[in-house]
Amino acid sequence: MAQEPKELAAKLQRTLERYRGEKVRGAELARRLEDSLKEASRGRGLERSLEELQQGAPGAEPGAAATAGRGQVARNDLLCLPSQRSTKEVGNIPPDHKDTGEGHHQA
């Protein structure tokens, strides 16, 4: 037998509310997972930096040599990161100075 329109509408409304609730819970779970991944990647970055410091330090612990392979991977990862340029004041350059391009490779 066919359901009455009111019963069908009520059933559809309950299903819709359940779906919306699951969608909200899913979005919250996804946000938490993204936050956890960000924290984990930060931790990995700090771990890599620590390994590099231990390997490059004079008189480093013997355990640092065992992680040399991982240190090379970490160095390669750091080389892939965009560089952060630092500026250093070399001296006073006169305001009318023009760069002639000498010493620079031009394409």
Q: How would you portray this structure in words?
A:
This protein has 107 residues and is mainly alpha-helical. It has a domain at 5-57 and 66-79. It contains three helices and no strands.
Task: List the main descriptive attributes of the protein structure presented here.
65% helix; 107 residues; elongated; single chain; mainly alpha; 3 helices
In short:
This protein has 107 residues and is mostly helical. It has helices at residues 5-56, 62-66, 68-80.
Number of E strands: 0
- Reading the helices and strands in chain order gives HHH
Q: How would you state the average pLDDT, rounded?
A: 72
Number of helices: 3
Principal-axis shape equals elongated
**Main beta sheet:** none
Class from helix and strand fractions: mainly alpha
| Uncertain stretches of 5 or more adjacent residues | none
The termini sit apart by 81 Å
Q: Rg, please?
A: 30 Å
Q: Helix coverage percent of residues?
A: 55-70%
- What fraction of the residues are assigned to beta strands by DSSP? under 5%
Biased composition (Low complexity): 56-71
Biased composition (Basic and acidic residues): 35-51, 95-107
Region (Disordered): 35-107
